[in-house]
Amino acid sequence: MRISISNFKKRICTLTILLAVLSVNAQAKNSQAAVKDFMDLRLGLFIHWGPVSLRGTEIGWSRGNQVATEDYDNLYKEFDPVLFDADAIVKTAKDAGMKYLTITARHHDGFCLWPTKFNNHNIKNSPYKKDIVGALNEACKKQGIKFCIYYSVLDWWHPDYPNNASNRTGIDNPNANMDKYILYMKNQLKELITNYDPYMLWFDGQWEKPWTNEMGIDMYKYLKTLKPNVIINNRLGKEFASTKNNKIDASKMVGDFDTPEQVVGRLNMETPWESCFTICNQWSWKPNDKMKTLAECLSILCKTVGSNGNLLLNVGPMPDGRIEARQISRLKEIGDWVKTNGEAIYGTLGGPYQPNTKFSTTRKGNKIYLCVLGSETATIQLKNIPDRKLVKAYTINGNKVTIENGQNTFNLTTTQSKIPYIIILEFNASVENVAVIDQE
To answer: Which helix (H) or strand (E) holds 294?
Structure first.
């Protein structure tokens, strides 16, 4: 059989396009699977840390404000966290029930916690000299914790970046060169991926005028060529949930998951998201900073997971490298609760009931896990689930729960008072595809 050159070329072209489409689809499926696995983890530790801990002020934002710029930029010359113990910090995260850890490898102040080859403003040139990012990476991999890296899009220290202050007033660096700066970013990010193989990259600082959505799209695509299954948050682009209305247009999102901050995200069964919260008030360490109670931390966790999100809870190590003992104790308390109630947290879906001040719910298979948030809540009333029959109800530690069925609702009553606690509801069929139920 004879095939003309032109037909042969057409067939090759068609085959090439088909292979490209199959490759893209395969990558998309892999990416979706990776994000689903990430969302099943539910709880992680955020660490905001750097030389600014020597002043006890906020990382990045206190530069040029509470701390004079020159003083701030030279703090690394005093930074010597001799009591930093990566294994101990990762164990603290693990004991808290956390499945992943995210470190601020480079915040807005531009200082790098790893010995980067692309600037001198890094840990190698401090008195400490040792690679903090590398040590945490090794400790995480040793203890089975996913290692993740925070990296700021902006850098007020860098000579090629257009802004050199936190005032958000626009370009104030006449020697700026955004093309050179983006190349610098790509070089550093390639270095981080190559050296540490992070599970996830957490970006921030993309709101400033020099950075555009198109730059974010380009960076996202570049990073996926380096590691196709690396998970990336949505702060390379301009579309992310704000703390004001907590809404997002997922079709405009540049990234794999949304990032509401210091607020629990809305119940969303479509768009993956993660809320980040501080365990105290400030992101980086502050002496005598007010710490959240155990009840507050567990309420945030239950409402976050009940809204189908992950929780990234932040601590700020002290100048010597240790996490405060009181914060370690609080994390241990969270971990003790999670050990008992982890069935209601890990690998679950949020809902189907909208969370409120009294309770939140998660679900898996034919079970709904009702997290009771108020000790004054002796009886909880829930709407019936269409085409499902409630078979039994009991607390996660086996205490009896009384069920009173009504025409459109049912009431649950238990004598347990220590909060939060979990009531397990077993139905006669799977509840995973039940539509969200608003209690109002």
So the answer is: helix 294-306
